[in-house]
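User: Here's a chain of 94 residues. Predict its fold as tokens.
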Amino acid sequence: MSPHEPPLDTDVADVAPDEATLTGYDHGHLVTYLRLPDADAENADWREVSRIVLRIDPEREPERARRAFDSHLARAKWMTVHGYRHLLRGGGTD
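Assistant: Prediction complete.
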């Protein structure tokens, strides 16, 4: 893997960042941010998405799974409107 390729299977935080610029966390979770809107567009069950994409078991940790799903989906949507501009400029990390 080159240093410019995002990791494919990175552990997620309980809550995604909400800064107005890209963070190191965002760079490390680009694949996650790409997968979530697709799942949302297909009306996938959030529990299944949490289990597969975020790797959080919604049966064992329902509140954490829902919080992580909601915040990461919101961040993914932000990325499609604003965050990608930071990527194109090649900056924005902490």
